[in-house]
Amino acid sequence: MENFAKDASSHSINSIKYLVPENQPHRTCYHFQPPHNWMNDPNGPMYYKGVYHFFYQHNPFGPTFGKIMVWAHSVSYDLINWIHLKHALEPSEPYDINGCYSGSVTILSEEKPAILYTGNDNNKNQVQNLAMPKNLSDPYLREWVKHSQNPVMVAPSGIEMDNFRDPTTAWKGNDGKWRVIIGAKNGDDGKVILCHSEDFVHWILDPIPFYAIDNYGMCECPDFFPVSICGTNGVDTSVQNSSIRHVLKLSYQNEQQEHYFLGKYQPDQENFMTDTKFTGTSLDLKLDYGAFYASKTFFDYAKKRRILWGWVQESDTTKDDIEKGWAGLQSIPRQVWLDKSGKQLMQWPIEEVEKLRDKQVSILGKKLIGGSTLQVSGITASQVDVEVLFELPELESAEWLDGNEVDPELLCSEEYASKSGTIGPFGLLALASEDLTEKTAIFFRIYRTPNGYKCLMCSDESRSSLRQDLNKRTYATTFDIDPNIKTISLRSLIDRSIIESFGEEGRVCLTNRVYPSLAIDKDAHLYVFNNGTQTVFISKLNAWSMKHAEFGYEEKIENINS
Ligand code: DQQ
After folding, report:
1. Which of 10, 118, 146, 430 shows a CA-CA span of 20 to 30 A to 215?
2. Quick one: three-class SS letters along 403-465?
3. Which residues are bridge partners to 488 per DSSP?
């Protein structure tokens, strides 16, 4: 691919002119946010000729979900520092006049990117539309032209006309035809519809759903991509060979959770055989067990990796969002790959985030006896990247947990961080006030079960703020651990009102949104704790204060109706 990066990197980002009040303690410093107003799903992320493009669902008129959603557009050279551009898509035609909803980008032949997005049409039905860049020699692809034959797809029979949305990135089969899947529902039954096309304009919809699930409601924002069975490199979306597996990810609207399945895609039969069935229990795989939704991946041609973005919702009140003037964050982009076991995905913040690491403090070989709390001082604890490796005692002493099928969130809410256990709870207290009246605990606790050992990973927001009007959640999952395991790791990216945590090197992810009232700016603290009777060791801990990422824009973004 020809590369624009050299020319375009001389472009300097204009100073940030936020249209929201400055010095807001909960506005993040290195997570992606628009300058103001509402943001939800990531749309059409791509790497194109040296530039990363990120589009997202945005209400330009206010900090709540709007009647008229646009595709806002930002570009970057490193996925960390961003330039906000004019909106790529705004409602303008009968087929999208009630909103340009989510979709994806596909790079077609001759390296032409194409957006497939959902339009809410003049009858409030959902149809699929196509848009192409106006000028391929513009490195930022600032202008997009809607196709004259839009809409290119309408809901097939058996699908509700107003619940047919969110096309994926398309993949090309060996027969040269493009395929795309689209989320849908009928009544309370979720569906995923497969469509194919020879020219990306004329589409045939398969009458047999690619995936269907009863009683779980709309399957929003599907994602379908290959993963390599060996190594951490990503694979382009159209690759099909014996050294890959496929991932189908669905955002269940009723649950607001991101479930995924690993399986085998058989292109000749247009069939995806999942390795496991959906059980509706804690055994199901989720990309993130916390506040993370409507995610989307893309293949990064520059670094041969697959990158995942997800929308992280607010959990404060709408009144707060209106006062703040903004709502919604994106997760830090995460590299995603198949674990060596072949049984689950692994995720890790992209390496570029480490460029923001500033002052470092370390703790090595420190004993954490039961009931102890140790402050990690010397860093800006409101915005920090912390990695800790805990050394465990012998596992035989772990508490018994009856039965294999436990409800991890219930367990976590009963066995919260401040209640003593045997091996754990131990972990981090993030965004904590000095007197620990405010804290968000991210912790582990180990149990013996009839079939081996299980680790509970939990995040407890119940004491995250003195405020009573917040939605404070307990997020948790359990995972099996090897009886010979000696250590367990945790990394948390803490950024003023978000904590993204990665347990066991990315095996389990949990994201929290919290709004402390005491633990803000310089009054935020970070602690390591152990409330188990058994001693654990901090084998090593490294924490870095994080610098601000740069967010600016080229031109003032105009209101679309002014
Ligand atoms: N958000 C979009 C829809 C999608 C939903 C509208 C998921 O296209 O289904 O903003 O959050």
Report:
1. 118
2. CCCCCHHHHHHHCCCCCCECCCCEEEEEEECCCCCCCEEEEEEEEEECCEEEEEEEEECCCCC
3. 390
Does residue 343 share a domain with residue 406? no
pLDDT tens by residue, 513-530: 999 999 999 999 999 999
**274 pLDDT more than 50:** yes
* 324 DSSP 8-state letter: H
Considering only residues 556 and 270, tell me which one the structure prediction assigns the higher pLDDT.
270
pLDDT value of residue 16: 44
Q: In this structure, is residue 354 part of a structural domain? A: no
Domain span at 307: 2-349+550-561
Q: How far is the CA of 98 from the centre of ligand 1 (A)?
A: 13
Catalytic residue positions, numbered: 41
Q: Give me the CATH number covering residue 14.
A: 2.115.10.20
Which amino acid is residue 154, in one-letter code?
Answer: V
Query: Any idea what the CATH number is for the domain that residue 462 is in?
Result: 2.60.120.560
Contact 459, 413 (CB under 8 A): no
The verdict on residue 156 lying in a domain is yes
Question: Which atom of ligand 1 has the smallest separation from the CA of 65?
Answer: 10
CA of 74 to the centre of ligand 1 (A): 19
Nearest CA to ligand 1 atom 9: 220
CA distance 364 to 73: 44
Is pTM beyond 0.70? Reply is yes
In angstroms, what is the span from residue 101 Cα to ligand 1's centroid? 6
Condensed to tens digits (0 to 9), the pLDDT of residues 213-243 reads: 999 999 999 999 999 999 999 999 999 999 9
Do residues 230 and 108 share a domain? yes
**From CA 166, how far away is CA 150, in angstroms rounded?**
16
In a domain, 526, yes or no: yes
Helix (H, G, I), strand (E, B) or coil at 17: coil
Residue 124 CA to ligand 1 centre (angstroms) = 14
pLDDT, tens digit (0-9, with 9 covering 90-100), for 130-176: 999 999 999 999 999 999 999 999 999 999 999 999 999 999 999 99
Shared-domain flag, residues 258 and 373: no
- How many domains does the chain divide into? 2
As a whole number of angstroms, the distance between CA 68 and CA 76 comes to: 26
Choose the residue to mutate in 58, 102, 120, 254 for probing ligand 1, maximizing ligand atoms within 8 Å of C-beta: 102
Tokens matching residue 227:
């993963």
Residues with CB under 6 A from ligand 1: 40-41, 57, 69, 101-102, 118, 165-166, 220-221, 294
